[in-house]
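Whiteboard transcription, Tuesday session. T.W. wrote the structure tokens on the left side:
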């Protein structure tokens, strides 16, 4: 092997080794970039978790939820917390997108490049081994040719010496000549083999350096360029993961600034504070003068009247109906505002021990009058809202049942009866609770319609309305049957004329019943269950009885019907089936 060939081979091996190290370093850089993305993703997740913990830490507790609904500064702060929570969600989205769009893709690319690099390097090593094998074979042929040539030269010299020596016999000369000829033939053979191998080696070398090795280098170059191109795309994707959520984060910050920051109204908060803590108590009367000139040495002072009592105790009851007798010496907070420290400490001990807190928490009689009104009205509105929801759900089920009845292929109408019964039971329980908080012992200002009705009933405003069209309420029936003839729906709804008409004499209605024409029926219905009641406003019925509907259910659970003998009254809507 000549010196030039060795130099070229050494250079090619050095180039291949340099490419091997460079490509390995490039793949290692992918791992480095992936570690960067993973740590960046962890930062986003940790930041989102810290924001969520911050939101949870400063979110209103259950006991403070009412204040957050009243005051604009607290209500808007709750909105700020919601926006911060939304920002935390966006940072979680950034972390998720980094993992899916960058981290996982880099891992996949790294595996592909690592395998491709190994294949290319293996191919390069195989080509170098093939070239080295060809060179060694050429060296072997060259060595054999040299040995054969030297042997031929030695045999030729011996033949020439024997031929010129007169002392040698002819046989010895012929033998030397034969040996020389054999050596010459072998030399020619080795020479031909050497020439052939030299040609093959030169061809392999030309192909190796001009075709095969450059092809492998081009493949490695394409692989490296692909890696660099993908890295550039991953940089763009990495930035895009954050850039996509910036509009949402900006919108959240804008909402904090405009929607919540500018919605804080000091006047509203001040008025809400006044409304919440307004007691409704009258100022104390003037202190009497102590006249020492009066006989006896001292003037007699008269104890001030106890006019600062809560609404719940105005009718002599501090608890809701049906809850038993209230504990003795129980007073509201403002009922004891001028009491002694001893009495206050005794009340506080009872409150902390929980003996009276459960009693006071239901009718709010421990609060000042105005606050008690607000609490009771809020409770009434809450229960009424639940009733409205149940009524809407019931109406939807009734419409669905009508559709099923018209087309049985859509469903079985009887399959909805159980749900209707359950909803009816819920409505009845809610109306019973509503009636509890609407008890007359809570002295709310009368509505104009209620006052007009009372005036008419007392003879102050003309003839009262007919008994068939009273103002509806949700009071309980006077007598709800305890054992119907068969399984019946939930307990009947509350009588529509319970407490508002309790002060009206039935005789007044008897005198005016015939003054107006009887209303026309708006439909018919069939009694599904037996119903009995001693309430004169309600109508008893037996199972299977057909009745005329005079007035449909307006949402309170009662339907006004008329029997064939012209007797009228209200029956529970859940007890009848409209035809």
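and on the right, the sequence the group agreed on:
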């Amino acid at each position: 092997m000549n010196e030039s060939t060795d130099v070229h081979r050494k250079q090619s091996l050095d180039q291949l080794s340099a490419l091997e190290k460079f490509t390995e370093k490039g793949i290692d850089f992918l791992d480095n970039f992936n570690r960067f993305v993973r740590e960046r993703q962890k930062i986003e997740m940790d930041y989102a978790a810290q924001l969520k913990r911050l939101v949870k830490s400063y979110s209103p507790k259950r006991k403070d939820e009412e204040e957050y609904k009243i005051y604009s500064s607290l209500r808007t702060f709750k909105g700020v917390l919601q926006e911060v929570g939304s920002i935390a969600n966006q940072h979680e989205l950034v972390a998720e997108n980094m993992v899916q769009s960058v981290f996982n893709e880099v891992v996949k690319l790294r595996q592909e490049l690592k395998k491709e690099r190994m294949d290319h390097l293996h191919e390069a090593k195989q080509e170098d081994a093939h070239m080295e094998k060809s060179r060694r074979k050429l060296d072997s042929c060259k060595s054999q040719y040299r040995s054969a040539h030297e042997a031929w030269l030695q045999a030729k010299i011996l033949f020439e010496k024997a031929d010129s020596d007169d002392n040698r016999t002819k046989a010895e000369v012929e033998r030397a000549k034969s040996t020389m000829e054999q050596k010459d033939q072998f030399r020619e053979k080795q020479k031909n083999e050497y020439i052939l191998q030299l040609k093959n080696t030169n061809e392999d070398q030309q192909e190796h350096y001009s075709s095969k090795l450059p092809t492998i280098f081009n493949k490695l170059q394409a692989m490296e360029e692909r890696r660099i191109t993908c890295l550039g795309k991953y940089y763009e994707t990495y930035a895009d993961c954050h850039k996509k959520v910036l509009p949402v984060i900006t919108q959240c910050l804008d909402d904090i600034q405009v929607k919540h920051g500018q919605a804080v109204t000091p006047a509203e908060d001040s008025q809400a504070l006044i409304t919440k803590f307004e007691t409704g108590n009258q100022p104390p009367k003037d202190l009497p003068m102590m006249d020492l000139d009066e006989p006896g040495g001292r003037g007699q002072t008269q104890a001030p009247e106890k006019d600062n009592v809560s609404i719940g105790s105005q009718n002599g009851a501090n608890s809701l109906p049906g809850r038993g007798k209230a504990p003795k010496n129980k007073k509201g907070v403002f009922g004891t505002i001028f009491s002694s420290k001893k009495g206050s400490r005794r009340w506080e001990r009872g409150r902390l021990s929980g003996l009276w807190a459960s009693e006071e928490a239901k009718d709010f009689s421990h609060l000042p009058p105005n606050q008690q009104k607000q609490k009771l009205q809020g409770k009434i509105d809450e229960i009424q809202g639940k009733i409205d929801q149940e009524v809407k759900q019931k109406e939807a089920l009734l419409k669905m049942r009508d559709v099923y009845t018209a087309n049985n292929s859509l469903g079985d109408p009887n399959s909805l009866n159980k749900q209707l019964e359950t909803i009816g039971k819920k409505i009845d329980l809610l109306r019973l609770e509503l009636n509890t908080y609407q008890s007359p012992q809570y002295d709310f200002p009368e509505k104009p319609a209620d006052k007009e009705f009372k005036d008419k009933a007392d003879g102050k405003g003309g003839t009262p309305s007919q008994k068939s069209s009273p103002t509806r309420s949700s009071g309980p029936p006077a007598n709800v049957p305890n054992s119907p003839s068969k399984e019946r729906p939930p307990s009947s709804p509350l009588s529509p004329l319970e407490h508002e008409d309790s002060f009206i004499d039935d005789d007044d209605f008897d005198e005016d019943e015939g003054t107006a024409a009887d209303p026309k029926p708006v439909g018919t219905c069939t009694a599904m269950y037996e119903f009995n009641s001693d309430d004169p406003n309600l109508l008893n019925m037996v199972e299977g009885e057909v009745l005329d509907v005079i007035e449909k259910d307006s949402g309170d659970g009662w339907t006004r019907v008329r029997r064939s003998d012209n007797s009228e009254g209200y029956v529970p809507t859940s007890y009848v089936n409209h035809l």
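Someone added at the bottom: The longest helix spans residues 72-164.
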